[in-house]
Write a structure and sequence with these properties.
The protein is 28% helix and 31% strand. β4, α3 and β5 form a beta-alpha-beta unit. It has 9 helices and 13 strands. It has 2 domains: 5-120, Aminopeptidase; 148-292, Aminopeptidase (3-Layer(aba) Sandwich), CATH 3.40.630.30. Strands 1, 2, 3, 4, 5, 6, 7, 8, 9, 10, 11, 12 and 13 form a 13-stranded mixed sheet that branches.
Length: 325
C-alpha cells in the first residue's frame, strides 16, 4: 500500500468510510468502539453526519475532524450547533508532515464547509487543557466558563410521590418539551425523535428515565439517568427538565437522588449553566459545584445574531448535550 502523502485527499464522509473511522479511532484512543456504537452516534443521528476525512485513494483514513450536530431552539426559531468530538490523526502519520499538517488541514476543510449560519452556526465542546490549546489555535475557541458538576450525596433521599420509571417517552412529551423551551433562551430541541435517539437507541449504555406528574396527571419534570457512570458509584443526570413554574418543581432533585440511591450510587452529578435558575435551585437544596479539568468553549459563525455573550448568559446546557454521558 502506498504511503505517498501527495495522494491524500480531504473531503466529507462517504458511506463505507465508517470501517476505517472505527479502526483509526480504536487505534488512536486505545478503545474498542463497536460499529453499532458508531452507527448510532453518527449514521442515526437525526441531525445528520458532520465529518471530514483525510484519506488515501484506497480508502484508508489518516485523519478525521467531526462533530455531533444538534438542532437547537433559539428563541422562537431553530439553528444547528455542533459538538466537536472524536477528531484524530493516525499516529503513524503525525510526524514529518508539512505544515499545516493533516489534522489542521482536515480541521480547516471542515470549518470552511460547516462553519456558517445555515450549517453549524455554533461549534462547541468540553476540551481538556491540551485540546483547548489546539482548538484555540485552529478553531478560535473562546472559553465561556469552567465546567463544574453540581453534585449531591444520595444518603437519606426519599422519593416524592408521582414518580414513574418508563421505557419510552410519553404521548404528551412534545407538549411538555415546548412548555419547558419557552422558559429558556437557547437549548437543545428535546423532542421525542431526538431523545429516542439520544437515550433509547444507544447500544452501549443504559439510561433510567424518570417522569414526575402531579395529582392531576400533568407532567412537570423529567430526568435521564446513567448509573455507575465512568465505573464509579455515581449517577450522572444527563437531563433534568423541570417546569420552573410548577409548585412541585423542586421535588425533581429529590427524585433524582432517590433513584440514584436505589441503583447503589453514593452520589449524583449533573451540569447546568452556572448561576442559572437551575443552578440556584439545586444549590438551595444542598447540591454543590465540583470542579473538573474541562472548560466549556464555543465559536460562533454569526457574531451578529448569536454573539458569545448571548450564549454564555442564555444557553441552558445539560450533560446530555455532550458525549461524556
Amino acid at each position: 500500500m502506498s504511503h505517498d502523502l501527495s495522494q491524500v485527499r480531504i473531503g466529507p464522509y462517504l458511506p463505507g468510510d465508517e470501517h476505517e473511522i472505527v479502526r483509526v479511532f480504536n487505534k488512536v484512543f486505545s478503545q474498542n468502539r463497536s460499529m453499532a456504537t458508531w452507527e448510532w452516534e453518527y449514521a442515526r443521528n437525526p441531525a445528520g453526519i458532520h465529518a471530514f476525512l483525510a484519506k488515501f485513494p484506497d480508502g484508508r483514513v489518516l485523519s478525521q475532524f467531526c462533530g455531533i450536530p444538534r438542532v437547537m431552539r433559539v428563541g422562537a426559531g431553530t439553528a444547528c450547533f455542533g459538538e466537536i468530538v472524536d477528531s484524530m490523526t493516525d499516529p503513524d502519520y503525525r510526524m514529518g508532515l508539512k505544515k499545516p499538517g493533516l489534522f489542521a488541514s482536515t480541521c480547516f476543510e471542515f470549518v470552511e464547509f460547516f462553519g456558517r449560519p445555515d450549517r453549524e452556526v455554533i461549534m462547541y465542546g468540553l476540551p481538556n487543557p491540551m485540546a483547548f490549546r489546539v482548538g484555540q489555535r485552529l478553531l478560535g475557541y473562546v472559553h465561556l466558563y469552567d465546567v463544574e458538576l453540581m453534585t449531591h450525596e444520595v444518603a437519606g433521599a426519599l422519593a416524592p410521590e408521582g414518580v414513574t420509571v418508563a421505557a419510552a417517552y410519553p404521548a404528551d412529551w412534545d407538549a411538555f418539551e415546548q412548555r419547558i423551551a419557552v422558559q429558556h433562551g437557547i437549548m437543545t430541541r428535546r423532542d421525542r425523535v431526538y431523545l429516542d435517539w439520544r437515550y433509547l437507541q444507544r447500544p452501549d449504555a443504559h439510561y433510567e428515565l424518570l417522569f414526575l406528574r402531579d395529582a392531576s396527571g400533568t407532567l412537570f419534570a423529567h430526568a435521564a439517568l446513567r448509573h455507575a457512570w465512568l465505573g464509579q458509584p455515581t449517577t450522572a443526570c444527563g437531563e433534568l427538565m423541570v417546569d420552573r413554574d410548577h409548585p412541585l418543581a423542586m421535588s425533581a432533585a429529590e427524585a433524582v437522588r432517590a433513584a440514584a440511591a436505589r441503583a447503589g450510587s453514593t452520589r449524583v452529578q449533573t451540569f447546568v449553566r452556572p448561576n442559572s435558575p437551575e443552578w440556584i435551585g439545586l444549590a438551595s437544596v444542598g447540591w454543590h459545584p465540583e470542579p473538573t479539568q474541562f472548560r466549556f468553549v464555543a465559536r460562533t459563525y454569526s457574531g451578529t445574531d448569536l454573539p458569545l455573550d448571548l450564549l454564555k448568559d442564555n444557553w441552558s446546557v445539560s450533560l446530555g448535550d455532550f458525549d461524556i454521558v
